[in-house]
Amino acid sequence: MFRFDMAALRQLLMSRWIVGMIVAGALLTTLLLWMSERHHAEELQSILFNQSVVMGVEEIQHQVDAYRQILKGVEQLYTSSEHVSMDEFRLYVEDFIERSQDDSLSAIGFIKYIHLLKPETFADLDIPIQQLLKHVEYGPDDNEVAPVLYVEPRNDTNNEILLKNTFSHAQLRTDLLAARDGDRLVMSRHSMVEEIAPLHKHYVLHVPVYDRKALDSLPQGQRQLLNGWVFLRFDVASFLHAALRSQEQRQLHFDVFDKIAEQGQVPLYHSEAESHLHDLQARYTMNHTVNVSGQTWLLSARSTPAFEAAIDYGQANRVGVWGVLLSALLGGIAYFAMMRSHTQLALEKFSQEVSSNEQRWMLALESTGDGLWDWYVPESRIVYSDRWKSMFGLLPQEVDDVPDSWHDRIHPDDRPAAMAVLQQVLDGGRDHYAMEYRMACKDGSWKWVFDRGMVFKRDAQGKPLRVLGTLADISKIKQSEEVIWQYANVDTLTGLPNRRLFFDRLDRELRMVRRNSHKVAIIFLDLDRFKEVNDSQGHDQGDRLLQQAGQRLTECIDESGVVARLGGDEFVLMLSDAHANYVEDIAQKVLGRLAESFKLEHTHAYVSASLGIAIFPDDAANKDDLMKHVDQAMYASKQKGGNCFTYFTPRMQEHAELRMQLSHDLRVAINGQQFYLEYQPVVNLQTNAVHKAEALIRWQHPVRGMIPPMEFIGLAEDTLLIVPIGEWVFKTAIEQCRQWRESLDAKFQVAINKSPVQFAIEHKRHYDWVKQMLDSGSDGSMVVVEITERLLLDANSQVSERLAQYGQAGVQVALDDFGTGYSALSYLKKFDIDYVKIDRSFVRELGTSNQDEALCRAIIMMAHSLGMQVVAEGIENQRQLKLLREMGCDFGQGYYFSRPLRPDALMTWMQAWQQEHMVLSR
């Protein structure tokens, strides 16, 4: 019979109860710790929120202080001068405006105080008082007026308030008199531009100006020697946006209200940051008053969803997970080992794990590389960690636990700012800080450090008792930032600003132009014949030339200008506040300096430059158009032959747009079968036989009709479209010649023009016409390649090799348009040339010009003496033909024989020609 053991049952129930209590207690502890960690994370985010709001307020006050300093400087101009003219005021104020780089600052000016019954108040005016009062509105009973005498910068809005009587506005008069009576800065809500610029809210800061020398002799408080007021007007929304921008980047939303204005007012500033649909949904909110020169603003801040989403609950979640796991572990231990000894062992193990975790945490903190410091303020004692000391190469015993050990090592240039921040902490003005500065190492070098500190404990009066912080070495970061900046903004070859830095400076200069209405000139230049130096001397010598060119350009301008290298052999100069004579002087100076010889490693090189000039705002309304137009002007100088400068004109833009459209149409024409070939027969002048024809390309545009080759061949070369066009011409002409050899003459030849660009591209692609003929089984004698004198002038070893390959393959070479370039006998002797073609410009005047006749005769004799045959172009009448035959010219072509014909028409013409001249040809 089964016996029920009550003792065992009680022990079992007791064990489970104890286990349950332990697990429940552990889970409850986990819950409390989890909630505490979450609360701590939220508190940290709250501290960040509060600090950001306070920093926003400080930034607003800092910006107002900056305005105060500007006004103080203008006030000192008046107090240190007997009289301030309009030009002196403008020059002085322009410097403040330029250095401030503040888009919210819209005006700085001077309001003149005039008492009509006291001549001494208007004795220093530049114009008679009667003339001035004609432009000032005031009542018949008014003895005092206060017109706006000067205002900068001069623009439409500021011109509207010039000479306006500020005393005609009651509130503004009250504010001005308050500034006078209190001898202090006063901010006014009335800006005099409400009707002129209703979309922008402006406030104005006023400071009174006195005749200080006379005032010192008067009893204190008398204000009879008031000269006027200097004022500064700013756009409130832009001002607050600039002040709060860095805090808004932390995902905070701000509204700023004029606290004295009526309820339901529109805020002075409203953040664009995404916020909650309702203000009550924000987790963190704060209202902070801002005292601004006698006015009170209310800064209303609230957190955004993005800011709240950044709360780091990671530690709380880890506590929760580990707490649950530990609760289960404790429950298991308690269930299987209720013995006191086992429980003690478990607790000891747990304690060891906690201690190990704490040691690992301390090790991780030390491994960050930060030096720790603990400042006991009342004792004037600072405890520095070993890491803090070793950071500067110091041994522990070499550093005393006093503030001077820290203070004396700060760089002299950084010390005032650093000490000012620390003093604010000691005075109770702030709870925390973060700043960067340099500190001296034991070896005399300097390290950049990032210093963060926080007040840990205060006394009853709010003074700090203990401040804790860390010091991090950021020297490598600073060095990296400098290197990155150099790579991003400076051309590594010349040391000049690169494209990015130049455009940054151009943007800044154009903003100044719009504000001050002066002009900026851009000179864009490209070196002529620089490619020849690179090809003949090597890229290292080309780089040396570019370095010298950059140095010479820098010497051509003063410190107000900018020289930059945009890339390759392209440079650009920016001239501020430029007038026509100055710009042309600089352009001539640049041309002269760049035309001087450049000393390379083993030789001297000569180049020139093509300059384009454009003026802002005359030639463009923005930066992109300005650079586009100056590039077009430079291209025009290139077209003129280089070594000159050209100003931009609207016609250049039209020409550029036409070239762009024509370039697009050329690409379409290649694939759209818009090209075709015509052939002009070449006649043997001694036998009348026709064994040759020159292939000439024609373009039938679907809209513009027939486009002459002279309009598109140059563009095709510039865009490298000449390569596919030339390939098509070659293949089409070869196929046509093959057909004519079968039907007309087994020795028929086709002359095909070849551009220097095609030679250069063929060399890079290792693909040429000789290879194509060999691959297709064509005979090289079918082709006469026509080249220009320019190819021989620019010839290198690759050109010589290519011409030699033509000769080996049976391809003949003709020098086209001979006499129009710079060919010399040395070039004709150096290369394998079969034909010389006399340009039509010499043939045209045969029979009427003895000079052209002598030239043609000399060319024919010279060519024959070198074993070459001669082809005369442009024969149009019997007189020209007769003279050329008498001179011994071998071949001729021109409208006297036939104009260029389609293939079928050429066959018909040749059949008729052969029948008519059969006897002669035999």
Automatic annotation (TrEMBL):
Residue ranges of every copy of the GGDEF domain listed in the record: 518-650
Ranges of residues in domain CHASE: 146-300
A Pfam family this chain is assigned to: EAL
Keywords noted in UniProt: Membrane, Transmembrane, Transmembrane helix
Signal sequence annotation: none
GO cellular component, one term: membrane
GO BP terms in the entry: signal transduction
Domain PAS: start-end pairs: 357-429
Domain spans labelled EAL: 659-914
Domain PAC per the UniProt entry, residue ranges: 433-486
Principal subcellular localisation of the protein: membrane
Places the protein is found: Membrane
GO molecular function ontology, one term from the record: catalytic activity
Protein name: PAS domain S-box-containing protein/diguanylate cyclase (GGDEF) domain-containing protein
Source organism: Methylophilus rhizosphaerae
